[in-house]
Write a structure and sequence with these properties.
Layout (H helix, E strand, L loop, with lengths): L4 H31 L11 H9 L3 H33 L4 H4 L1 H22 L8 H38 L2
Helix pairs in contact: 1-3, 3-5, 3-6, 5-6
Length: 170
Amino acid sequence: MELPKICSNIVDLLLAGLLIFTVFWFVKIWLTAGEFELSLLDFIWNPSEARELIAHLDPTQRQAHIWITENLDVILPLSYGVLFAGSVWRFYPLNRAYFAVPALLAVGADLIEGRIQILALKGTTDLLNLKQFITPFKFGMVLLAIIIASCGFTTYFNTLRKNRRKTMTP
């Protein structure tokens, strides 16, 4: 089912905005972590390494990590999830339900991982053993969602380029 031209243009603008929004939040997380000289748990899937990192955090770093995870690392997955799922909705009208699954699973895994990290950082419960499964799964789903979205964008831009050549040829 093809979208009317005006709707396609609006969706394209929304996707461009979401891309900028997602990059902004990614950068914001890294800059905020840098202010506190923090290594983030998000990239550690080995439970022993995660525990070691937490043990070496001072109270200010621990609170900063909790704040980043509770706030910024909720906005980021929601942002990239909408970006990737929106890309699927825009570029894959026949396979939307299937191609959106990696993006949705990535968001869920990222949010679960964040809760596990917060519990460990607060010293409430140690579920860090789950990170050895959840973190690689999250990254796998994010990578798959990026590939799917990139293929859609590439096809879209190639089609635009071909259509532009046709209109420019006398």
